Amino acid sequence: MIDRTLKKFVTEKLPEFIRTKRWFGDLASYDLQFSLYDYASFQIENNESVYLIIVNAKASTKDLYYFIPIIVRDGLVIREMESSPLSGLFVIAHLAAIKSLATAGGATIEFHGAFIQKDLLDLKNLKVLPESTNHNFYFNAEGRHLTCKILKRLNHVQGGDCFNYWDRALHDTTLATLAYNNRTRGEKFRLIEIREFFTGDSLDVVLRKSIRQIFSSIVTGDEKKVNIANIVSNAIDESLGALLVKIGDDLRRYHTLLNSKNNNFANFDFISSDLEKIKWLSALINKDKQFDKYHKIIANALSELISFYKYVDKNKEKLIPSATDAHNDLHMSHIIIGEDQRVAFIDPQIFDSDGIRPQSTLVDLVSIKRSIEYFSYSELQDVVAKMIPPWADKDEIIMLLLNDMDFSSSSKKLQNLILATSLWMEKVESLISNSYGKENLRIFEMICYYSRLLKELEYNYSYNGRGQFKYVDISYLLKNIPTSTQLDSKGE
Questions:
Q1: Measured between alpha carbons, how far is residue 113 from residues 44, 100, 124, 131, 277 in Å?
Q2: CA 454 to CA 469: how far, in whole Å?
Q3: Which one-letter DSSP state was computed for residue 265?
Q4: Which of 278, 362, 279 is nearest to 319 (CA)?
Q5: Three-class SS state of 139
Q6: Residue 174: what are its φ and ψ, rounded to 5°?
Q7: What is the pLDDT of residue 56?
Q8: Segment 41-82, tens digit of pLDDT
């Protein structure tokens, strides 16, 4: 009876539910078929149980697994448990008492760690840390900073110890894990983890003071006497410059540690996948009323991008280096700055969100660049909104100014604001990347950048309520698109 109930939930209710979630957004263009893969349960009240279900989602080029804890009452699915630290803590606490739970498919769900159930249920002063951390799954317990995270999209752990495999080159410590282990099939998934980490500010908090100093100087200064280069140099002082250099140095060391075992990763075919994304996005953008006036220019940009991808595909033996391991989701909020400019890269993913090995360590530098673009755009929105008429669209204005398009109402201060922001971004990025000392792989770095941008644009078109983020992606797609002339001039 319960098998039939769960299977019906997975095939009929779950797809609709999953497609509304942020963590699913970048897969919306795939026609995935969902099926119940395995499950286990434990009782919490007389008529109520928690079911830990593993779901398989398949398409022609995808074979993915998801972990969804649900509440079942009197044989009926009541709801999916929230992806909060408290939900994860609740589940892992119950498993800490019994250590292992058999699944219907002959596997086990196992607790590993030094905690006992009482430790987990009786944590004192449980609270979400201040918003400045930019990670709502962090909490403080008895003066310790912990994260308890439900890992929704699962990845096979290949070889080695399932429970230590991810703990590489990090400045945090795994305290407990809940893992799915099917010894017969040789399958291992991590489901929930509790980590302890050192405190500090994320990089976006550190950079906010610098960029707002620039904005203040331009908004309050004489637009005829403004010296943009000096304003930007003053905002990136010696201390901030040294920190950005250190981030580049530490990231290089981090990558060296990740790849110290000389793992041989096979290159994967991201080109055909990205070309499918462009086709899918082109149809959606062409119907998007937000960009009615710009459909032609966006279509031309996407056409140039297709030509670029075909050029890379034709010359991939020469242009694409051997694959290497990376963090692969390195937002500014994942870079934590502690005392004495100590740097940590947190929340690493061995695989990217499609369950595939990263293509190159360059992906992390590209991710930082994209994160800085999002951050700068967000900061611009606030100040631009105060400088334009209430009827004007700040997102459209920023897009036009970033791409040197005609905007008759733009003031000199608005133009200076965009110029200063672009120069500031360029200097921040170059301090990190020059310190990192990357190889001269300009074409491949470009393809990594576009691949990341397409993935985020796909996500923003598949997840409701992200209109402003579409503007960020479209703005920088137009700004950074390669032309045939540029491509011919870039020798490798």
A1: 22, 12, 19, 28, 41
A2: 12
A3: B
A4: 362
A5: strand
A6: -80, 125
A7: 85
A8: 888 877 888 889 888 888 766 778 888 888 888 878 777 776
Strand partners, 189: 180
Structure tokens at 104: 């219907």
Left, alpha or beta for 186 (phi > 0: left; psi -120 to 50: alpha)? left
Contacts 24+ apart (CB under 8 A), 222-229: 223/411, 223/412, 223/413, 223/416, 224/412, 226/416, 228/416, 228/419, 228/420, 228/423, 229/423
Terminal-residue alpha carbon distance, the chain:
62
Domain boundaries, given as residue ranges, for the chain: 2-199, 205-489
Superfamily of domain 205-489: Aminoglycoside phosphotransferase (APH), C-terminal lobe (3.90.1200.10)
CA 382 – CA 208 distance, rounded (Å): 12
Count of all residues that appear for the chain in the document: 492
CA 93 to CA 95: how far, in whole Å?
5
- If one counts every other C-beta atom within 10 angstroms of the C-beta of residue 118, the result is 11
Query: For residues 439 and 319, what is the distance between their CA atoms, to the nearest angstrom?
Result: 12
Q: 92: which 2 tokens?
A: 């892992």
Question: From residue 455, how far is each of 306, 410, 469 by CA, in Å?
Answer: 15, 32, 13
Distances from the Cα of 17 to the Cα of 14, 24, 152, 182, angstroms: 5, 10, 13, 27
SS3 401: helix
pLDDT band at 238 (very low <50, low <70, confident <90, very high): very high
Tokens 């220019």 -> residue: 297
